[in-house]
Amino acid sequence: MKKKEGGWCRSFREQDFPDSDRRRIRVRPDLQPWLSKGDINKMELLAGGEVVSKARVPAHGQVLQVALDPPAPQQKSEPPEGGPAHRRAGTHSERCQQGHCSLVKRTDDWFEVFAFHLDRVLGLNRSLPAVLRTFHSDILPYRYISGTPRPVVWWDPDIKHLADKDNDQNSVPLSWARYQKLLQVHCGSKANLKTAPCVGVDHPEWGRLALYDFLLQVNDRLDRYCCGFKPDPTDLCVENLLYTKCGNTNELLLVHILVRKADPSTLVFIDNAGRPQQSANNLNFRLVEGIDEFPESAVSVLQSGCLESLLLHSLYTDREFWDSQGGASGFRTIIQTVEQRGKILLQHIRDKKLRVNRDL
Known about the structure:
Blueprint lengths: L1 H4 L31 H12 L1 E8 L2 E10 L2 H4 L16 H6 L3 E4 L6 H11 L8 E4 L16 E5 L21 H10 L17 H14 L19 H4 L18 E3 L2 E6 L24 E3 H9 L2 H9 L3 H6 L2 H26 L2 E3 L3
Parallel strand pairs: 8-9
Antiparallel strand pairs: 1-2, 2-3, 3-5, 4-5, 6-7
Helix pairs in contact: 5-10, 7-12, 10-12
């Protein structure tokens, strides 16, 4: 950490974040080295691409899939995933397969943009690029162009979805009981990835996911039933009576367990809005249940005291998100909340004497 990120362990200065830079995506390789060229291309597509078509997402009424025409500089270069050369013509589905689509989410899901930057500065690199954006296109329904910015997440055409329409937000069907069993056998190192209880995902992936979800307090993945904390009466897990199933582990299912077709042993993190307001005395430790190792790169960032500086330099890249939160001072409270959760997680690792493994 000292060699790799030591220069970032300084207090931020106002001149690091000039208001005079009015680009939608403000990137300098020396300021945000954790953002790849692919990340930057996708962020620029999401922030500046012209809306050309839209489609509903089945069973997700508050999410709209929107195809975007890449900004002019990108039209002369490779598309986000290096696929076929960009062309304006084509159906909505074809544009999405070219990597030119996004998911426009609820205004309340703004924390998902923060989550993308957290993923990158921790060195996890498992979430999809996301920005905050205000739309003005006549193609979109009125509520999407009413002036309130919305989180926009890149739509990855390579993610594997189950054919079951009631379970399409998974690449593999996975119950809580089977999940706990596969954690014990260490899939990929001590057990065959394709032999039950394994589901094809490498063991270290679950530690990355658990760390990320704990910091963000994402329950709608490993704990969609809200069994590991006291939910609010307005939470969907309470309104839909999922909370009542916690006593029967055989009925508990995981959701948003996704992989890419081209890389089925590596997880992809989606729907990462989590719970920015979750209090420290109501944290969900079920998210780390059964986890016996965590990634060294992410743990070293949490230990270093650099997280605030790293996040501020990363968040600054998204001008609309930065401005909407009031800049560095506006982000300070939420960053401190995540830092506190990080300290609690580090104490958990020490208390349980869990392993910290070097990333491959």
